[in-house]
Amino acid sequence: MRSRLDNLINEFDIALKTLSFTKAGTNRETPGKDCDDKLNQADIKLAQRLMRVNLAGEVAAQALYRGQATASKDPEIKQHLLEAGEEETDHLLWCKERLDELDGRPSIFNSFWYLGSFTLGYAVGKFGEKTSLGFVEETEKQVVKHLNSHIDQISPADSKTHAILKAMREDEDAHGKAAKSAGADDLKSPTKKLMQLSAKVMTTLSHWL
Ligand SMILES: [Fe+2]
Ligand SMILES: [Fe+2]
User: Fold this and answer.
1) pTM
2) Which ligand is the nearest neighbour of the Cα of 168?
3) 140-176 burial: b if 16+ Cβ within 10 Å, else e
4) In 3D, which of 71, 70, 117, 75 has the Cα closest to residue 92?
5) What is the pLDDT of residues 25-51, one digit of tens each?
6) Under a CB-based contact definition with an 8 Å cutoff, are residues 125 and 67 in contact?
7) 82 within 8 A of 69, measured Cβ to Cβ
8) Ligand closest to the CA atom of residue 140
9) The dihedral of CA 136, 142, 145, 149: what is its sign?
10) Ligand 1 mean position to 91 CA, how many Å?
11) According to a count of CB atoms within 10 Å of the terminal CB, is the N or C end of the chain lower?
């Protein structure tokens, strides 16, 4: 049995690994690996910005899942959250790889997104398993919408970024549906609005910085 201090140290270690992009995922190959796109400067600039936003989103996703799993009292749900979180780690690594290839840089606020999202995830988790799953379902729905808008914006010439975003969209959709079938409660409309608003702050800031 792990003590509270052990858990705290373990969480801190995971946070550092996430923020340094050295956390292990499920070892899936990066989508679009063999694409060899010739992009112009405008395409590259746009892709740098959008992938910085997506990387920030994946940092936040890691922290939300970890926070929710930490608060969860049901071993099965905890495991469910941790497993979904691990697939999210693949997204984190794919986005970082693509951002590096594009010569872009991560958001300077990533540590802040992590801390804020972990706290939020933990608080949501304290409302109980059904609310926590409802939060996953709603988050993933919003992420799918967000990814659709990025897929529309990215240059059609940029097939690697497209491949990554589409693979992520498939996972996010599956995570949302899995949360629903695991017994998610539908969240109240003001809560959904508040989630949209906080995501907007994060995506807007990460677009530029
Ligand atoms: Fe993700
Ligand atoms: Fe997700």
Assistant:
1) 0.92
2) 1
3) bbbbbebbeebeeebbeebbbbbbbbebbbebbeebb
4) 117
5) 888 999 998 887 889 999 999 999 999
6) yes
7) yes
8) 2
9) negative
10) 5
11) N
